[in-house]
Every structure is written in C-alpha cells, then in structure tokens.
Specification:
Blueprint lengths: L3 H27 L14 H24 L7 H37 L1
C-alpha cells in the first residue's frame, strides 16, 4: 500500500535533483554542439525555476501529510532533502538570471562605444 506523504516526498526528491542537474548538464552539452553557445543555456533557466518550486511544494505537501499520519517516520528525510534541493535549484536559476542580466548589460554598454 502506498503512503500519500511518501509519494510526495519521492516526487520532491526527484524533482529537486532534476532542478539542480539541468543547468550544469546544459552547460556541459554546449561544449559538444556547433549550433548552441553558452548563452543558449538561458532557455533552461525557467525550467530550473519551475522544477525547484515544484520540489518545494511537494516537500511541503509531504510534510503536511506526514503530520496527519500517526506514523511520522515515512518520507520526512526525503521531503527535507527534496525541499533543500528545490531551494538550491531556485537559487541556481536566480544566479543564472543575474549572470545573463550582467552579460546583457555589458554587451549593451560595449555596443554603444
């Protein structure tokens, strides 16, 4: 029998891992592509942010469901790790947005001279 909190905890963990892994994998794959440059990785930033928020939401759902159950030991650690990975994914997306913004500003200032 499946436990509702445990399913959300596993979903949070998997989504959090994916949110943390997408940007580095995209950057790595640009090294082998003739068509895509490093700047094209910016298209993955919204995906990373969405997956991070989904991981955080699933972790909260898992913790709430586990609080209602009598046996609270199922999935608490998974939910914590998934939520932390989701937070890291959102922070990575924000850092990538700042990097893209600085790059755009430098390109704009450089083109005016």
């Amino acid at each position: 029998m499946s436990r509702p909190g445990r399913d959300a905890a596993w979903g949070s963990l998997v989504t959090g891992l994916a949110s943390v892994a997408v940007l580095p994998v995209a950057v790595y794959l640009t090294r082998f592509s003739e068509r895509y440059e490093l700047l094209h990785v910016g298209f993955a930033v919204p995906l990373v942010a969405i997956m991070g928020f989904v991981a955080i939401t699933l972790a909260r759902r898992a913790r709430r469901r586990n609080a209602l159950l009598l046996d609270r030991s199922h999935g608490i650690g998974l939910a914590r790790v998934g939520g932390l990975l989701g937070i890291v994914g959102v922070c990575m997306a924000l850092a990538a947005l700042v990097a893209l913004g600085v790059y755009g500003l430098i390109e704009y200032v450089g083109s005016r001279e």
